[in-house]
Amino acid sequence: MTGQDDLKRAVAKAAIGYIPGDCIVGVGTGSTANFFIDELAGIRHKIRGAVASSEASAKRLQGHGIEVLSLNEAGDLPVYVDGADEITRHMHMIKGGGGALTREKIVAAASKKFICVCDSSKLVNVLGKFPLPVEVIPMARSYVARQLVALGGQPMLREGFTTDNGNVILDVHGLKIMNPVELEATLDHIAGVVTNGLFARRAADVLLLGTPEGVKTMTA
Ligand code: 5RP
Questions:
Q1: pLDDT score for 1
Q2: Do residues 87 and 34 touch, judged by C-beta distance below 8 A?
Q3: Pocket test residue of 6, 7, 32 for ligand 1, highest count of atoms within 8 A of CB
């Protein structure tokens, strides 16, 4: 097993083992989450439905005949399965490469267990090589960008992209994130920021890491 897609498929399969019967599953966004959705289709008669973290995932779930519920209808969820752009051994993550960070953070917050599914390229010692996505209310774009520069980052507008919530994304380059919990809170306090892509306060509970030697299971 070597190709990146094979690794993603393997962790997606492994995540099925964490889905209780007769439950509503929280489902993430991205290429690894897509593999998970495809695996979920195989057990669709054993679950009640899913809450999706993006319009794209909702469409894919529905395409497999899986009922998509709103989080308001579903209430708290037993489990959320999603990928990450970077993750540390402490289970802190950068997410939002696909631009779905706000809904991902909401569904993760409402879930008892966060199962992160990644190929081994995503495991890092220090977060920040991957540009940190920050979702911003459009009128606050320049103001927030100046605040991000003052914090030592180089924000770049994600050109031609609007989030499912009608906002823009600033991808912040050049941050070496030594204290993700603190930076997550600092960024959330900038007026105009909707969400930042640090998932440190609500970190993952389990990491299923796809490696050429097989799927490794890690916890904090
Ligand atoms: C989307 C995300 C994804 O989880 C992250 O970008 C990883 O995606 P992929 O599985 O395609 O590498 O946060 O907003």
A1: 44
A2: no
A3: 32
Contact 130, 97 (CB under 8 A): yes
Task: Classify each residue of 84-115 as buried b or exposed e, where b means 16 or more C-beta atoms within 10 Å of its C-beta.
Answer: bbbbbeebbbbbbbbbbbbbbbebbebbebbb
pLDDT(207) > 90: yes
Q: Which residues pair with 189 in a beta bridge?
A: none
Q: Is the pTM of this model over 0.85?
A: yes
Show the tokens assigned to 78.
């037993």
Tokens of 129: 């090589």
- Decide: 175 and 149 in contact? Cβ < 8 Å: no
At 53, list the tokens.
């973290």
Q: Return the axis-axis angle of helices 31-41 and 55-63, rounded to nearest 10°.
A: 30
Output the pLDDT for position 2. Answer: 56
Ligand 1 neighbours by CB, cut-off 6 Å: 28-32, 82-85, 95-101, 104
Which member of 86, 104, 135, 184 is catalytic?
104
pLDDT over 80 at 109, yes or no: yes
33 pLDDT more than 50:
yes
Question: 149: helix, coil or strand?
Answer: helix
Q: Determine whether 104 is an active site residue.
A: yes
Tell me if 192 sits within 8 A of 173, measured CB to CB.
no
194: CA distance to ligand 1 center in Å?
18
Mention every residue, 6+ apart, whose C-beta is less than 8 A from residue 189. none
Nearest protein Cα to ligand 1, atom 5: 84
